[in-house]
Amino acid sequence: MTDDVKNYISPAGYRQLQEELARLWKVERPPVVTTVAWAAGNGDRSENGDYIYGKKRLREIDRRIRYLSKSLDRAVVVDNSGKAHDRVHFGATVTFEYEETGEQREVTIVGVDEIEAGDSRVSWRSPLAKALLTAKVGDTVTVLAPRGPEKLEIISVRYDDLR
């Protein structure tokens, strides 16, 4: 991501990133630094497992800390919960139906750092969310899916509390 790209995020997502950053910085990192310092004082570092694996873990923690810090710096907190919008915006939970199959699906449009392994939360930058954004109930939109364009009809839009 470039630095000029906004990182839209819900209040809950922002809080989760802050909590993870604090946990890494205050809980996980200090004991690793202590172990690495102790291991470095023991002499030969090339065969010192505590030093080698401690440095590796420290690099992993520091990499994640840098990522979280940059994400939080770019974050734009958007809270549309409880608002009555008739169109799809960030934070909306949208129920739609595939025109071809009639199958219904519900997704919530969230920030890039808030998506989960399941398919109920999608990033606002995903092709699906881009197709849904600004549509309203009853509209039919086309999403450019890997298997080809798919038409979706918006069934409902609601804004749950994402705080």
Structure description:
The chain has three helices and seven strands, in the order βααββββαββ. With 163 residues, it is of the alpha/beta class. The protein has two domains: 7-77, Helix Hairpins, CATH 1.10.287.180; 93-158, Roll (Chitinase A, domain 3), CATH 3.10.50.30. The chain is elongated. The protein starts with 6 loop residues before the first strand and ends in a 5-residue tail after the last strand. This is Transcription elongation factor GreB. Residues 7-77 form the Transcription elongation factor GreA/GreB N-terminal domain.
List keywords for this structure.
single chain, 5-stranded mixed β-sheet, 3 helices, 24% strand
Assign the CATH architecture of the largest domain: Orthogonal Bundle
What percent strand?
15-25%
Helix coverage percent: 25-40%
Note poorly predicted spans.
none
- Fold-level CATH name of the largest domain: Helix Hairpins
**The number of domains:** 2
Counting copies of identical and different chains, the oligomeric state is single chain
Describe the sheet with the most strands.
5 strands, mixed
State the fourth-level CATH superfamily of the largest domain.
Transcription elongation factor, GreA/GreB, N-terminal domain
Gross morphology? elongated
Order of helices and strands: EHHEEEEHEE
Give the N-terminus to C-terminus distance in angstroms: 25 Å
Physical arrangement of strands within the biggest beta sheet: 5-4-3-7-6
Query: What count of helical segments does DSSP give?
Result: 3
Q: What is the CATH class designation of the largest domain?
A: Mainly Alpha
Radius of gyration, whole Å: 22 Å
User: How much is the average pLDDT?
Assistant: 90
Q: Which structural class matches the secondary elements?
A: alpha/beta
Keywords: DNA-binding, Transcription, Transcription regulation
Protein name: Transcription elongation factor GreB
Organism: Luteitalea pratensis
GO molecular function, one term: DNA binding
